[in-house]
Amino acid sequence: MKVLITDFDLFAKVGGGQTFYRSLIRKNPDIDFYYLIDKEDRVTKRPDNAHGVPFQEKYFLADLNNFFDVNPPKWVYRSFIRASNIAASVAGMEFDLVDSPDYEQWAIFLRPALDYHRVKFAKIALSLHGKISTTLKLDWFNQGKENIPLELEEWKQYATVDLRYGISKSYIDEWQSLSPFSAHYYHPLHFFELPQPLEAIASGDRPI
């Protein structure tokens, strides 16, 4: 089985989503996982079933001004270009599943982008980690203001994919209250192992 994870530098970035995907890869050695490499060193140590695909920027935001008689809303430009470049990077390849994190919004355009670049795949899954619009409303970056275009993009992405799954029951319940489309809940220990207790090593030295 071959799975494309449409996220970047999984074995170089530090973040909850990347930690989750690394654990997913290690827990499933019988599945071949592919992901995009942008800044990650190509000789980075990774499991044998993890395959980095060099990210190719074939399309740019400025290109959109040349192809549309009636321009689409600018708030979808980034996701459209990112999905197009992801698809171009894996052009002609074949996957059983395409997995995209919901802290990005490019899954809304992945299907047409992958089809255009002759990428064969069965289904697109959305990995539920958390909405960026919620982060903004919690006053991390935007003084707590709502971002309506971003929320609309997130809602449409959630509806566009074939499958949805997550490890937070409360987060899935939140989505269920917003959308008629279902999501699968998996217990976190399905993906993560509890750390094993270690016996303290006695030392005669005073702490620094």
Structural description of this entry:
This protein has 208 residues and is of the alpha/beta class. The protein is 29% helix and 17% strand. The chain has a seven-stranded parallel beta sheet with strand order 3-2-1-4-5-6-7, with helices on both faces. Helix 6 links the parallel strand 6 and strand 7. Helix 2 packs parallel to helix 3.
Give the SSE map.
Layout: E1 2-8, H1 16-27, E2 32-37, E3 50-54, H2 77-89, E4 97-101, H3 110-116, E5 123-128, H4 132-137, H5 148-160, E6 163-166, H6 169-178, E7 184-185
Parallel strand pairs: 1-2, 1-4, 2-3, 4-5, 5-6, 6-7
Helix pairs in contact: 2-3
List keywords for this structure.
7 strands; globular; about 30% helix; single chain; alpha/beta; about 210 residues
Strand order of the largest sheet: 3-2-1-4-5-6-7
Helix tally equals 6
What is the assembly state of the chains in this entry? single chain
Order of helices and strands: EHEEHEHEHHEHE
Which word captures the global form?
A: globular
* Computed structural class: alpha/beta
Strand runs, count: 7
Distance between the termini: 51 Å
Q: Using only CA atoms, what is the Rg?
A: 19 Å
Low-confidence segments: none
Kindly state the percentage of residues in helix. 25-40%
Q: Outline the biggest β-sheet.
A: 7 strands, parallel
Strand fraction: 15-25%
Arithmetic mean pLDDT: 90
